[in-house]
Amino acid sequence: MSGVFHASATTARLDTAMEQAPPHLYPVLLAVRDHRVGMLFVGQDAGSFAIPKESTRPAIVLIGDDLEQSVGPDGFHMPSLRRLVRKCSAFTVVSSAPTAEIYAAGTAPAVGGKNAVIIETRLAHEFQWVALIQKLAPGRPILLSTVKGGHA
Fold first, then answer.
1. d(CA 148, CA 68)
2. Are residues 119 and 93 in contact, defined by beta-carbon separation less than 8 angstroms?
3. Which end of the chain has fewer CB atoms surrounding its CB within 10 Å, N or C?
4. Of the candidates 111, 112, 92, which has an alpha carbon nearest to the alpha carbon of residue 103?
5. Alpha-carbon gap, residue 111 to 113, rounded angstroms
6. How far, in whole angstroms, is CA 21 from its chain's centroid?
7. For residues 96 and 123, is the Cβ–Cβ distance under 8 A?
8. Helix H or strand E segment including 11
C-alpha cells in the first residue's frame, strides 16, 4: 500500500517527530504520544486502506489531498473512503492554511475515544469532501477551515 503510513512509534521517536514536524501537526503527534491515539496517513493514489482491525485505540486519519494539486474524493480508493467515513465520529476539512488550533480541534474527538478524520485539501475540492461526509455520515460534526470565498 504505497501512500499509506501506519507504524508503531516509541515515545523518543514521537518526541523527535514533534520537534521536526510542521507546527500544525504538533497536536496530532501529542495525541499519539500522550493519549495512545493511533495515526494513519493516506496520500493520493494510496490504493486500499483501513484503520487496522486489530487496533482497539481511537485513530486520527490524515487524508493528504493537498499536494501538488488536489484530486478530491475521486482520487482515493472509494470503498476504503466509504468504510472510513462510516467508522469515524468527527471530521475536519482544511482548505485554508493549516494551523495548530484547527488540528487540535480535529484531534480532540480521538483523544476522547472516537475515530476522527482530518482532510487536507484545496478550495477546489472542499465541497466534494463535505458532500461525501454528509452523504455517508449525516448528522456527524464537520469542522470546515476554509479560505475567504470558500464553497462548502
1. 21
2. yes
3. N
4. 92
5. 5
6. 16
7. no
8. helix 11-20
Give the Cα separation of 20 and 121 in Å (integer).
Answer: 22
Q: What is the pTM of this model?
A: 0.89
For every one of its 152 residues, what pLDDT tens digit does the chain have, with 9 covering 90 and above? 345 445 567 778 777 877 888 999 999 999 998 998 989 999 888 889 988 776 788 999 999 998 788 999 999 999 999 999 999 999 999 999 999 999 999 999 999 999 999 999 999 999 999 999 999 999 999 999 998 766 65
Mapped onto helix, strand or coil, the DSSP state of residue 92 is strand
Cell of 30: 501529542
